[in-house]
């Protein structure tokens, strides 16, 4: 892991590695074109260095529509790892890279938990460690600002136009200056929802003060998407994300060629190779990258670099998750210099597995404590050691 590896040798190797599955109940069901659930199923990993510093990570299990991996496959990947006493753990970066080829969400857990532990051992926030390793990629003044605040999106789920207006008005009143609205269903209803959101945002914050984006999650065919782009432009939508089904970049390239609204790719981009393919085909103006899909921070950084070199806009996304996952994305945004990022995927979580991450005026306050800077509330004694066979039910961990 570049600069961090020499320090890691000094702070100690891994002595414990354990995992579990936690269900986070939602206040309202998560619904879009590829999901309908009342809870987030999170897989967590805890690593402990020989010096005693513990690092944590979480990843979404019931998000196969984006990651192509289920809770079962992530648990199986962790159960198949060697015990923490095995020499393979002497090089966590190599172990994570190997795991990423089979199960990127599981590799994300290993990579983030290790980085959290080693940053804690060094007494620095993870964002600082990432800047030292990767150079930031953007002027330090870009993100976060001098208050440590990182602007983020407010997410507006499927629903009625009235609900879209109410949620957008609430977000604008709370200080959000970017709102992303789920579309990709009935275009007539989606148009009414976008119109209601635009009216509500302008009424609360002033005309155009709130940026609207639309995310179709691959829900439209090319003709439907193209028919939608004029009214999306009329309501000032800044970009349309993944308008067509993933796996057909030619279809998205057709939409992008004729759309008055910039098109971004999400489900179609996982790594640098995918970024180059999108750019080669002229399929998108921007890419929405996620660590859950890339697998490791190094792979994510390579994808960010590829997008910047190819002239594509870059946004950092996340699955809906708890505060532990949100803290990870916030530190990545700050460390890699990404000003457009989704950082508050915990907004709809009723009971969380971690505490210590705050939202103020539409921005996440980057923790200034070592590592990820959040407090995990789970009982480590309830976790299962890696290398021990298990199923999601067998390794489930209750919320405190």
* Secondary-structure element string: HEEEHHHHHEEHEHEHEHEHEHHEHEEEEE
Task: Identify the overall geometry.
Answer: globular
Summarize the amount of helix as a percent range: 25-40%
What portion of residues belong to β-strands?
15-25%
Radius of gyration: 20 Å
Q: Going across the biggest sheet, name each strand in turn.
A: 5-6-7-8-9-10-11
Mean pLDDT figure: 93
Structure characterization notes:
- The chain is α/β, with parallel strands linked by helices and 400 residues long.
- Helix content is 39%, strand content 22%.
- The chain is built from 14 helices and 16 strands.
- It has helices at residues 3-11, 64-67, 71-79, 92-100, 104-122, 126-134, 161-173, 187-205, 222-234, 249-258, 272-281, 291-294, 297-309, 323-336; strands spanning 14-32, 35-49, 54-60, 149-151, 154-156, 178-182, 211-215, 237-241, 263-265, 286-290, 313-317, 354-355, 358-360, 363-365, 375-376, 384-385.
- The chain has a seven-stranded parallel sheet. Strands 3-2-1-16 form a four-stranded antiparallel sheet, with helices on both faces.
- Helix 9 (222-234) packs parallel to helix 10 and helix 11 (272-281) packs parallel to helix 13 (297-309).
- The longest helix is centred in the first third of the chain and has 19 residues, at 104-122.
- The radius of gyration is 20 Å and the shape is globular.
- Mean pLDDT is 93; it is low at 1-10 and 138-143.
């Amino acid at each position: 892991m570049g600069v961090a590896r020499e320090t890691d040798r000094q702070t100690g190797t891994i002595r414990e590695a354990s995992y579990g599955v936690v269900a986070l109940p939602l206040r309202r069901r998560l619904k879009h074109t590829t999901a309908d659930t009342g809870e987030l199923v999170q897989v967590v990993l805890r690593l402990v260095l020989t010096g005693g510093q513990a690092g944590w990570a979480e990843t979404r299990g019931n998000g196969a529509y984006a990651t192509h991996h289920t809770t079962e496959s992530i648990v199986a990947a962790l159960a198949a790892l060697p015990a923490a006493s095995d020499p393979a753990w002497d090089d966590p970066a190599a172990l994570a890279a190997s795991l990423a080829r089979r199960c990127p969400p599981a590799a994300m857990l290993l990579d983030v938990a290790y980085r959290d532990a080693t940053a804690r051992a060094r007494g620095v926030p993870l964002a600082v460690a990432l800047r030292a390793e990767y150079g930031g990629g953007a002027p330090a003044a870009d993100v976060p600002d001098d208050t440590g605040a990182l602007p983020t999106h407010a997410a507006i789920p499927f629903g009625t136009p009235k609900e879209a207006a109410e949620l957008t008005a609430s977000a604008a009143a709370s200080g959000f200056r970017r709102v992303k609205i789920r579309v990709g269903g009935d275009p007539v209803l989606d148009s009414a929802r976008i119109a209601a959101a635009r009216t509500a945002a302008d009424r609360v914050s002033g005309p155009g003060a709130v940026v609207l984006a639309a995310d179709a999650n691959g829900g439209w065919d090319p003709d439907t998407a193209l028919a939608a782009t004029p009214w999306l432009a009329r309501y000032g939508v800044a970009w349309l994300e993944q308008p067509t089904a993933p796996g057909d970049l030619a279809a998205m390239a057709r939409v992008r060629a004729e759309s008055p609204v910039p098109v971004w790719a999400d489900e179609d981009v996982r790594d640098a190779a995918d970024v180059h393919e999108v750019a080669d085909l002229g399929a998108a103006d921007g890419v929405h990258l996620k660590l859950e899909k890339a697998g490791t921070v190094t792979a994510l950084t390579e994808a960010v670099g590829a997008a910047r070199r190819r002239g594509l806009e870059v946004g950092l996304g996340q699955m809906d998750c708890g505060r532990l996952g949100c803290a990870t994305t916030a530190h990545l945004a700050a460390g890699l210099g990404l000003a457009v990022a989704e950082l508050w995927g915990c907004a709809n979580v009723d009971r969380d597995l971690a505490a210590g991450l705050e939202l103020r005026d539409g921005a996440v306050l980057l923790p200034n404590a070592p590592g990820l800077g959040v407090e995990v509330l789970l009982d480590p004694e309830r976790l299962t050691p890696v290398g021990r066979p298990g199923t999601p039910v067998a390794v489930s961990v209750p919320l405190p």
